[in-house]
Design goal:
Elements (H helix, E strand, L loop, with lengths): L2 E3 L2 E15 L5 E2 L6 E2 L4 E7 L3 E5 H4 L7 H4 L7 E2 L4 E4 L10 E3 L4 E6 L5 E5 L3 E6 L4 E7 L3 E12 L2 E3 L2 E8 L21 E3 L3 E2 L1 H10 L3 E7 L1 H8 L16 E8 L6 H9 L4 E5 L12 E5 L17 E3 L3 E4 L8 E6 L5 E2 L5 E2 L1 E6 L4 E5 L3 E5 L1
Parallel strand pairs: 2-30, 16-17, 17-19, 18-19, 19-20
Antiparallel strand pairs: 1-23, 2-14, 3-5, 4-13, 5-12, 6-11, 7-10, 8-9, 10-11, 13-14, 14-22, 15-20, 16-21, 21-22, 24-25, 24-30, 25-28, 26-27, 28-29
Helix pairs in contact: 3-4
Length: about 375
């Protein structure tokens, strides 16, 4: 049987999913293998050094820099609070002394007799890594983090902004082909992952922020709407750090595009269930896709067998999405994979495949113009 390989997009009702949760710096892992964790549970923690505050005591007390160490009432390593006296001059005959009271709290890190400057280090800032995926800890990496595994409903998107978010799935509207507009966003969607149909408007996103929605998932978005919502043109190769009040995931692409019927039905079947979403998208080396992860409450303890062929394997019957005009966004199954190159309408030659669409009709497209929908 003819076959080929192509990039894949996972849309699965049930799949074994594993995620590695790692600290950027060495720290303490707070879970053990076999632990069951919730999505917001801290699995690892480290402490970032606090901010430093330089204080030029030589200038503040009108002293030569070399005299500063002798005037200190606190020493290196001492903890101080706001208002504590750090230094006091000798004065004249014990009179006319000058003092400096600290305006910040922290620990004295260093004192220089050359510059007359004192450095105060603020309290260490905790850096916590949440589980993100509700499941079982299957691996612990000492000092780094852990791997968590669970059976989930898993949907990958095309594009997203914003980082990790959590909340129950709420469906807005009744048609995957209808726009997600502001009137479909209601106050009871606070904290929810709102799933719309086709294009989401900038006013709908603004309304979602107002009601406190955790995330919005839609079929498409117009570039101008995205610019209006962000307040600037997004021109970076990786997203996920945007601080806009919610996470946005687009499942199909840019433009007035309906969400795939299969994706809409799948997310609709999980309405009310808790989900974890991540809008991080990377389009260069090390591709990262935005995702919606919904743990299955009835997941069996046994481990199911993996796929019978490698990821990205394209053969007859494989579900695919067309990602180029004139059939952009259409979904179907591979009906045939001719081995010989064929002449396209443009006059060029390319290897093609025949796609049987959900409507029952068939189209012939270049193999480079499809994306695998991995189940």
């Amino acid at each position: 049987m003819a076959h080929a390989y192509t990039p894949g997009l996972k849309v699965a009702a049930r799949i074994k999913h594993r995620c590695r949760r790692l600290l950027p710096i060495p720290g303490e892992v707070r879970v053990e293998v076999g632990d069951l964790v919730g999505p917001r549970e801290v699995v690892a923690e480290a402490f970032m050094p606090g901010e430093i505050t330089p204080i030029n005591l030589a200038n503040l007390l009108s002293l030569p820099p070399g005299d500063v160490p002798e005037c200190l009432l606190k020493q290196e390593g001492d903890h101080i609070e706001v208002g504590d006296v750090l230094a006091e001059t000798r004065g004249i005959f014990g009179l006319f002394k000058s003092r400096y009271n600290s305006k910040v709290s922290g620990t004295i890190e260093s004192v220089s007799g050359v510059t007359g400057q004192l450095i105060i280090r603020g309290r260490p800032q905790p850096l916590q890594v949440l589980a993100y995926l509700a499941g079982e800890v299957v691996e612990v990496l000492p000092g780094e983090g852990a791997a968590i595994e669970a059976e989930v409903t898993f949907v990958q998107g095309i594009f997203g902004i914003g980082g990790e978010a959590f909340g129950p799935i709420r469906i807005a509207g009744e048609d995957p082909k209808a726009k997600l507009t502001a009137d479909l966003i209601t106050p009871d969607m606070e904290g929810a992952v709102v799933v719309g149909g086709a294009r989401v408007t900038d006013t709908a996103l603004g309304r979602a922020v107002e009601v406190g929605a955790s995330a919005v998932v839609a079929g498409g978005i117009d570039d101008e709407d995205l610019k209006n919502f962000l307040g600037y043109d997004l021109g970076v190769a990786i997203t996920g750090s945007e601080d806009v009040g919610l996470t946005l995931i687009v499942t199909e692409g840019f433009g007035d595009i309906a969400m795939a019927e299969r994706t809409w039905r799948l997310l609709g079947s999980r309405a009310g269930d808790q989900a974890a979403v991540n809008g991080t998208t990377q389009i260069r080396a090390g591709v990262m896709r935005p995702e919606i992860v919904i743990p299955l409450a009835d997941a069996p303890a046994r481990r199911e067998a993996g796929p019978a062929h490698p990821t990205g394997y394209l053969e007859q019957g494989t579900p695919v999405r067309v990602i180029r005009d004139p059939y952009f966004g259409l979904i179907g199954k591979v009906a045939a994979l001719p081995s010989e190159p064929q002449t396209l309408d443009s006059g060029s030659k390319a290897r093609v495949l025949q796609v049987e669409l959900e409507s029952g009709s068939s189209v012939v497209v270049p193999r480079a113009n499809v994306e695998l929908i991995e189940e």
